[in-house]
Amino acid sequence: MNSPQLQRGVFLALLAVVTVAFFWVLMPFFGAVLWGVSLAILFTPLYKWLLRKMPGKHNAAALSTLAICLFIVILPLTMIGVSLVQEVTQVTQKIRSGQINFAAYFQQILNAMPQSLRSIFDRFALGDMEAWQTRISAGAAQGSQLIASQALTIGQNTFDFLVSFFVMLYLLYFLVRDGASLSKTMREAVPLAQPHTEYLLNKFTTVIRATVKGNVAVAIAQGTIGGLAFWFLGVQGALLWAVLMAFLSLLPAVGAALIWAPVAVYFLATGHFWQGGVLIFVGVFVIGLVDNILRPVLVGKDTQMPDYIVLMSTIGGMAIFGINGFVIGPVIAALFMAAWSLFVASHKLEVPPKA
Length: 355
Fold this sequence. Notes:
Blueprint: H1 4-26, H2 30-53, H3 58-97, H4 102-112, H5 115-123, H6 129-149, H7 151-189, H8 194-232, H9 238-248, H10 257-269, H11 273-303, H12 307-321, H13 325-350
């Protein structure tokens, strides 16, 4: 009854149960763990450089790395977030007061269209401005009621965010300091051949580093350029649109154009030809080039994945996991391709040569 096979089976079952239970316990801090691991992978080269400057002082090097990460990543994001909240409040007030009237903007575009296009809009009842205005007003009212009724929930979410933020910082410190030993332990614990384990772990770290570094750099560049263009052209809420362009730039090829293209169409339709021309030039030849040049260099080159795989995995990841999906999606796709390439390579080795 107490055979070695039974003992091994019970042990493997116990191992599976406690592993699932451990991940279940960590699920409330999934985002904190993900970003702690991602930032640790991104800033480990900096930690190693600091450790060479201060030999043997692991704690000091880790604390210095954490301070630099706070200074160049987290604090700027916090400041942008505070400014964004103020900008959203101002834009919301202007929409309610009528200073920003999307229905009127749409009406101006319709008036500039040829009669054939306007008849198509009228046929599908898309040109009824009173109906659009009613829908927008009703949506704004429902949004205000929702925010008012969920004030306690928003406060609770803020508290949860702060807790997750400090968990991420705490985890980041230890991952930076002890990352090498943890990586070695993982390589020894995974029940795979050592070359396969090292290949998959290297692919995992490379994809996370390339995805975070590349996508964030592209988002910052596109959002900054688009926001400056909107500010120069006098578009209201330039910071809000800049943040939206930065967020949408996580979608390769089409992201930022979802914001600047309608504004350019509005400028052209209302007779502001030089503003529309400037915005189209900036969108196509500056923002577009940033996406077409910077993203393949920082993301596609390191991940060694085709652009269409990066696009589909990013969109699919964000659809399933939210904002965290722009990291998780490409990582899953890269590990999928790496695992199958290892399987094909090992299968070829197992095939005996023909006589």
